[in-house]
Write a structure and sequence with these properties.
7-stranded mixed β-sheet, Nucleotidyltransferase, domain 5, disordered N terminus, 11 helices
């Protein structure tokens, strides 16, 4: 394993047959590459929660998130690692990111948002291959728990509008439903991911810039080049990582950066102080 980053970047596909060997690679590199950007792909949002009494938007967003994550299954998880300079780990001669393909989603029997599934299939995701060759979520959780990637306050997690990403990964790691309250979700997130930043949240604190919209719009504004296929988790995780690093390198974000830690856009803004305790 080397530390230089020639191009092009390789998205390492992880299926059942190579799960353990790929997690072993990650276990060996996490100390040197402690910045971890993540993205998930899932079957869309199928439930909208309505509350009869007034609640904050963050509470309402979380209850919608919780209802969907509890019911549905993660399809892909992308993880992109780097050091503080943005250097990616080099595996077999190529800078690499990881894309885990899970088997739990059943196209024939599970509910899903048809447009979301159409989008994923149009972008190359083979859902039948996932069912036959995909990673078992429980086995993945066991391996990731002992990898040093989670429950480690030396690791910096990076997301983009990451509530669902954290929700699906926490469901996987705990093998249980999400906490009933936003406060419980915040505490659980802080336990497994002690330091994290949501790039969508950071966009709000870039004086003089008019950043808006989704990940693709931000990457275009920052001239971040995509590697791989849009709407696949490995590619989106890498774009998220590059956008985060670009915001810091160009000094777009008001410092100190630490004051924006521990907030997931749309689900955590009301609890900034609680998360920082």
């Amino acid at each position: 394993m080397q530390n230089s980053s020639p191009s092009p970047v390789n998205i390492r596909e992880v299926w059942s047959h190579n799960l353990e060997s790929e997690i072993s690679l990650i276990r060996a590199l996490i100390d040197d590459f402690p910045f971890v950007a993540m993205d998930t792909e899932f079957p869309g949002v199928t439930i909208r929660v309505l509350f009869p009494s007034p609640v904050t938007l963050s509470h309402l967003n979380y209850q919608t998130l919780r209802a969907n994550v509890d019911l549905l299954h993660m399809i892909q998880l992308g993880l992109a690692f780097s050091d503080e300079k943005g250097t990616l780990p080099v595996i077999e001669g190529k800078p690499s990111v990881w894309q885990f393909n899970f088997k739990e989603f059943d196209l024939e029997n599970d509910i899903y948002d048809p447009e979301s599934i159409k989008l994923l299939r149009n972008h190359g995701i083979d859902l039948y291959k996932h069912q036959t060759h995909g990673v078992d979520a429980n086995r993945f959780a066991e391996l990731l728990m002992s990898s040093g990637v989670v429950l480690n306050d030396s690791v910096v997690w990076i997301t983009f509008h990451g509530g669902y990403d954290f929700g699906y990964l926490l469901k996987c790691l705990t093998a249980s439903k999400l906490p009933e309250t936003l406060e419980g979700f915040a505490e659980l997130s802080k336990t497994f991911f002690p330091v994290y930043y949501d790039v969508k949240h950071l966009m709000r604190y870039c004086p003089g810039q008019a950043f808006h919209g989704g990940l693709n719009k931000l990457s275009d504004a920052l001239a971040v080049e995509r590697v791989g296929i849009c709407h696949q988790a490995g590619s989106d995780a890498l774009v998220t990582l590059k956008c985060f690093l670009e915001l810091l390198e160009k000094k777009y974000v008001s410092l100190p950066l630490e004051k924006y830690a521990g907030v997931l856009y749309g689900t955590g803004d009301d609890y900034l102080q609680m998360l920082k305790v």
